[in-house]
Design goal:
GO molecular function: DNA-binding transcription factor activity; methylated-DNA-[protein]-cysteine S-methyltransferase activity; sequence-specific DNA binding; zinc ion binding
Protein name: methylated-DNA--[protein]-cysteine S-methyltransferase
Largest sheet: 5 strands, antiparallel
Family: Belongs to the MGMT family.
Number of strands: 15
Mean pLDDT: 79
Low-confidence stretches: 1-12, 310-353, 487-526, 697-709
Oligomer: single chain
Number of domains: 4
Pfam family, one: HTH_18
Organism: Methylobacterium soli
Radius of gyration: 28 Å
Length: about 700
């Protein structure tokens, strides 16, 4: 449930400062500023080229702080807080946040015993481990960052702050509007619904909030690394990596080291060989008791190599653990590739109170906000609708405008994808797809995808996705169905089946059977995917672990379970000869779409599928896809729908062999008496999916009406 909005305090804010903060030399101000800038949450934090500012809460009172570099003198802090007596405690927290007291001489001496680290320490002698203002805040942000990019994580955090965080009484610092919510504000909140994210992640945040509210010492420094990690990993949704990361930053444990981190492994890569997790931990024994500083040096080195790596196909992000993906490690973990990008001063064009709600709409791509405002991206010169599916922009590059005219007056041009200055995209897309269908129907041979997409004014990938969302089939499948109708009609007139096949536009009889039945040639299917590149990612959703895999043609596997390793083995068994590539950054958007569909299966699955299987399985799976959301059908009804009324058991086996959970909705098939029967991924998940679709009882009539058409 959304938190009740508290009224801003009327207590006057007392300016405090400037307060000098001494730092041990040398001090890498730019390194720690850039780290914080890459993760700055709009409304909560603001990072410019010369300062870091944020809202703070202490003892139930709210204020702001601003920290800037003072050259050899260290740092200078400017405070605005209603209680002058709290200034010493605030300055102490700032010191931990900026790691001002690190013993650089001892750290450098110990780490320089490793040849690789010696070179990195020499290049960055003043590198620090960024701390956190509040341990609970850092823990929540780490959970929000699971399975998403740094940018997406900051937008989610901004939406959470705008929804549940108390507002400031006045905007003492431009761009700062809310403080981070307290544990009691989130312990009972329906975060998943408010932020439109997986239920498991929302439950993990509630669990952390409840634990922090019950035990104020949960994030207290001085617990000892082993004890702190044990307490944190006992909580839902927090694994060893997140626990070590929280210990590193919030608890100031200098020997914390996130195990198996891909950035660390990648930074230690020699030639084509990357060390194993065991080899990393063994090598790290020589870094004690300063492993956290070694991690920061390696992350910085990995970020420096990111531009060269972006053009390479080897972008393996490692095998994510349950609840912690490679993407999550960038969200509030290792410095991401974005960190190396320059940070400029933030300039707001609207009041922060308005921006908070806009950030929330932007984070969830809320279609209800379309028409209320547009957002522009300074680096691209483009403005978009709030619901635009384009990749999320870095917050410091976003500008909000009330209308398209205002955005264009500021020098921005409309996005060619969401077309904010034109009619609603649904109407435009429907008209474009109708024209494409007419082209397919009247063409003697199937028009190539590029030509169809060009006629519709879309990119080939976007056209393919929109076509399938509107028609329920791909352009090739639609054309195949039309040609099959021509074959049936031609058989009434042609002398032979072969003549009818060629007259319908097939260039060979084998292509008619292969294309209509298997989705690939029988030879390719029989080879176990040989010569096929399959990208995949492991993550977590409200149903447990999830694996998503796709070829260049479309999604080929959506697997659910409790053990991520078992899901990966299942994929390897299904495609033993394929090239499996995991952890590619640009695969993240597709995975997020799939996870979103699993969370709300009643909607349309708007991604292309690459479906293998036998001819019979293809017929069964196509019938399953015609079962309307919110209804169920029996195995016998499916058998009758595909023209094989005696093949009930074969239908059940085909359902069990389906590798595309939810996208091919075998969860909608029940026994004749309405019992749920079996489900490849567990009856509990089947029951959950049907409940999400609002199924109260089987409804075979709806199926018969849809599959018989």
């Amino acid at each position: 449930m959304r938190r009740g909005r508290t009224e801003p305090s009327s207590r006057p804010t007392v300016p405090g400062g400037p307060h000098p903060i001494a730092c041990t030399a040398p001090y890498d101000w730019e390194g720690i500023r850039a780290f914080l800038a890459a993760r700055a949450v709009p409304g909560l934090e603001r990072v410019t080229s010369g300062a870091y500012a944020r809202t703070i809460s202490l003892g139930g009172r709210h204020g702001t702080l601003r920290v800037r570099e003072a050259g050899a003198a260290g740092l200078i802090a400017d405070l605005r807080f209603p209680d002058p007596g709290a200034i010493p405690a605030i300055l102490a927290r700032i010191g931990r946040l900026f790691d001002v007291a690190a013993d650089r001489a001892a750290i450098g001496a110990q780490l320089s015993g490793d040849p690789d680290l010696a070179r990195l320490v020499s290049a960055r002698p003043g590198l620090r481990v960024p701390g956190a203002w509040d341990g609970f805040e850092l823990g929540v942000r780490a959970i929000l960052g699971q399975q998403v990019s740094v940018t997406a994580a900051t937008l989610l955090a901004a939406a959470l702050v705008a929804t549940y965080g108390p507002p400031l009484a006045a905007e003492a610092e431009p761009g700062l509007s809310h403080v981070f919510p307290a544990p009691q504000d989130l312990a009972e909140a329906d975060i998943s619904r408010a932020l439109n994210m997986p239920r498991a992640r929302g439950a993990a945040i509630r669990s952390l909030a409840a634990a922090a509210a019950a035990d104020p010492t949960l994030f207290a420094p001085g617990q000892g690394l082993a004890a702190a990690v044990a307490r944190l990993t006992a909580l839902r949704g927090i694994g060893p990596w997140t626990a070590q990361y929280i210990a590193m930053r919030a608890l100031r444990e200098p020997d914390a080291l996130p195990p198996g981190d891909i950035g660390l492994l990648r930074a230690l890569e020699t030639g084509q060989r990357r060390p194993s997790r065991a080899e990393l931990l063994n090598r790290a024994e020589g870094w004690r008791p300063w492993r956290a500083y070694a991690a920061m040096h390696l992350w910085a080195a990995d970020a420096d190599s990111a531009p060269a790596r972006c053009g390479s196909k080897d972008r393996d992000a490692g095998a994510p653990r349950t609840g912690e993906s490679a993407a999550s490690r960038g969200a509030d973990g290792a410095p991401s590739e974005e960190m190396a990008m320059p940070i400029t001063d933030l300039q707001t064009e609207t009041r922060a109170e308005d921006d908070a709600g806009r950030w929330a709409a932007l984070a969830s791509r809320d279609r209800r906000a379309d028409g209320q405002f547009v957002y522009a991206v300074r680096t691209t010169g483009i403005y978009c609708r709030p619901s635009c599916a384009a990749r999320a922009a870095r917050p410091e590059n976003v500008r909000f405008h009330p209308t398209c005219e205002a955005a264009e007056a500021a020098g921005f041009r409309p996005c060619k994808r969401c077309r904010p200055n034109e009619a609603a995209p649904e109407a435009r897309q429907a008209a474009a797809i109708a024209r494409a269908c007419r082209l397919i129907e009247t063409a003697e041979t199937l028009p190539v995808l590029d030509d169809l997409a060009r006629a519709a004014g879309m990119s080939p990938f976007h056209f393919h996705r929109v076509f399938k969302r509107i028609t329920g089939v791909t352009p090739r499948a639609y054309a195949g169905a039309r040609r099959a109708e021509r074959v049936a009609e031609g058989l009434q007139e042609a002398g032979t089946v072969t003549e009818a096949i060629y007259a319908a536009g097939y260039n060979s009889a084998s292509r008619f059977y292969a294309g209509a039945r298997l989705g690939m040639t029988p030879t390719a299917y029989r080879r176990g995917g040989a010569g096929t590149r399959i990208r995949f990612a492991l993550g977590a959703c409200s149903l447990g672990a999830i694996l998503v895999a796709a070829t260049e043609r479309g999604v080929c596997a959506i697997l659910l379970g409790d053990d991520p390793d078992a899901l990966l083995r299942d994929l390897q068994d299904r495609f033993p000869a394929a090239e499996l590539v995991g952890g590619e950054a640009d695969f993240e958007a597709l995975v997020a779409r799939v996870v979103g569909f699993v969370e709300a299966p009643a909607g349309a699955f708007g991604l292309p599928l690459d479906i293998g299987g036998t001819a019979f399985q293809q017929r069964v799976w196509e019938a399953l896809r015609r079962i309307p959301a919110g209804t169920t059908a029996s195995y016998a009804e499916i058998a009758r729908a595909i023209g094989a009324p005696t093949a009930t058991r074969a239908v059940a086996r085909a359902c069990g062999q389906n590798a595309l959970a939810v996208a091919i909705p075998c969860h909608r098939v029940v026994r004749q008496d309405g019992a749920l029967s079996g489900y490849r991924w567990g009856v509990a998940r089947k029951r959950d999916l049907l409940a999400r679709e609002g199924v109260a009882r089987p409804d075979g009539v709806a199926l018969r009406e849809s599959v018989d058409r």
